[in-house]
Design brief:
The complex is a heterodimer of chains A (about 500) and B (about 240). With about 500 residues, chain A is α/β, with parallel strands linked by helices. Chain A folds into 3 domains: about 160 residues, Periplasmic binding protein-like II (D-Maltodextrin-Binding Protein, domain 2, 3-Layer(aba) Sandwich); about 90 residues, D-Maltodextrin-Binding Protein, domain 2 (3-Layer(aba) Sandwich); about 200 residues, MetI-like (MetI-like fold). In chain A, the strands form 3 sheets. Chain A has a 5-stranded mixed β-sheet. A 3-stranded antiparallel β-sheet of chain A has the order 3-10-4. In chain A, strand 1, helix 2 and strand 2 form a beta-alpha-beta unit. About 0% of the residues of chain A have low confidence. In chain B, strand 6, helix 5 and strand 7 form a beta-alpha-beta unit. In chain B, helix 3 packs across helix 4. Chain B is globular. Classes of the chains: A alpha/beta (about 500), B alpha/beta (about 240). The interface between A and B is medium-sized, with 24 and 24 residues.
Chain lengths: ~500, ~240
Amino acid sequence: MTRRTTLAAVGSALLALLICAAAARAESPRIRVGSKSFTESYILGEIVAQIVDETGEARAERRLGLGGTGIVYGALASGDIDVYPEYTGTIAQAILKEPALTSVEAMRGRLGPRGFTLGVPLGFDNTYALAVRRDAAARLGLRAISDLARHPGLRAAFDAGFLERADGWPGLQRHYGLRFAEVRTMEHALTYPALVSGRVDVIDVFSTDGQLARLDLALLTDDRRFFPDYTAVLLARRSLAERFPRTWAALERRLGGRIDTATMARLNALADLERRSFAEAAATFLGRASADTARRPARELATLTLEHLWLVAVSTTVAVLLGLPLGILAARRRRLAQAELMGVGVIQTIPALALLSFMIPLFGIGQVPALVALSLYALLPIVRTTHAGISTLDPRLVEMTTVLGLRGWRRLAWVELPLASVTIMAGIKTSAVLTVGTATLAAFIGGGGYGTLIVTGLALNDVGTILAGAIPAAVMALVIHGLFEALDRVVVPRALRAAASAPG
Amino acid sequence: MIALRNVTKRFGGRVALDDVSLTVEPGATHVLLGSSGAGKSTILRLILGLLRPDGGEVRVEPTAPMGYVVQEGALYPHLPAARNVALPARAANWSAERQAARLDALAALVGLEPELMARYPHQLSGGQRQRVSLMRALMLDPPVLLLDEPLGALDPITRASLQTQLVRVFGELRKTVIVVTHDVREAFVLGSVITLLSQGRVVQQGTLADLAQRPADPFVSEFLRAQAPPPEMARELRL
């Protein structure tokens, strides 16, 4: 095969992939349902989506697992989603920044001018609570948190977040005057086994944790009302209720006050402990057979692969289109080079997740902000290798271009780029392979791809699901590496490859 | 005509050329002779416009194009010999036919088989590479040809045969040629006028016979003697 036909083949294959990926993401207007990336939020989002679909007024588009409050609320504010499950405590503190606000009615009044509304509370409160073993509770006479003050010899294990938050341990300790013999930090999922095995006596829990439904534990009541209310509600754009009144009424009717703490804990347990899908857990609540919500992993994997490929292909392409000229510019202007390389380097020091969340106010959620962030992230290796490749060429060869009358783009296209192509291609290859990994983070802002499985798996603490996303990503990285090796044969001049592999 | 008048050139603190004046008449072959670091290459790069003098004046008429050959050729490793040679013609927007015709003529001139022209530089011998480099320098038929140690990296036999060939080519082309070399034999074979340089200064100008018989400075005799075969050797080997 000649170089030209290889180039054409590779080009048209890429084009075909891009078109497929573009077709896969073509959408029609729907009700877009969001959620945060933890089990309970996923399940509530699924329940909402299934009710939307049942009502038939619009089709539900699931944009579940959008990281934390900042990302998912940002998505609601930018109009990228229409509704998501939230908690009153979070609305008062993190969104409205009025911690004193407690009533749903007052919050609804504050949210109205912003274009949002709150549904009827769902019926449970997901707040911090303290749990002890039921036998210990009986033996020591523990019913409420204030009872703990009488037993300073107990050992506690708390999640790092709970230990630090003002509405966690520090405030609780002051409020109740508590003292323990020992307080240690522990990953939340590990505190349950530690409690059950008797290594510690008190742990912090969320009142709807799935494990609570399984294990023989007693929750201590917050008798002096320290923990803020985290009543679950639906936070929605007002336009949702106006455009789809039947759907909104159905959500209010079927969810308002219908999910109590025990029910939510049971649904969480279905997903966390019994490895059921979020859709199945939601269907169980709605009293439906889960046949039509059964997961089709093969099809799902194909979709996620296309999405992931799209993310990698577009952001790498943009990074090349941007990085090559920037690298060339840096090689031409020495003064500019330092500032430029430093600027591109600084982007790289921003944690990828932070960079992704910075994009939300500018571009909302979904693929566009993910692509922008990934493109910026992919820039550094390309700019650096282009700059290095061109500025370290044999000066006698570069000088000769002037003598031969090669100027401007001819000097670049005929001499400098071909000679630096081995180095530049190495940078592009590095960038593409790194992007396969970084693109898994796109799922946190609804960008899709293999990260969707990883985010879900993290929420479920399910290694299998995490691997279901991580292994295909690793395979894709290898395939892309291979593709670039093949592309080298097209882009890098034959003689340079021969010179690189043969001594002298 | 090419003329340097009281040219000074410094690189950082180091003086490369100190008050150098020389004139090269059109059609002459002028040799810049001297040890490495004498400033010979700097003179060529000033003439080419790759460097600007710090003091004095460099006059070149007409200015372009000029042919330039350096030690080891500076051929582009990613291009076959033919494409290396054609590069200046492509830059000057010559038609493909005109390029091909010129290529054939030059290959014949320097005595390279046409099939070698499809090879990449690393597939050619040192002598072949220098002839390709000479072809590239001659592609646009420049009136001025600048050669910087063109045979410096070659083995003695190749070197001797190429020297002979260069004399023939220069004779046919009637170009203004400036050759930089540290080799007295090469200066003798190629040049009519010689400028001997040492540490950035012109020591003496003239024919080799002038230099040998009327040395302007003890250094001239010392430089020539250092490269001559010892008399005993000449006798014993009947050279």
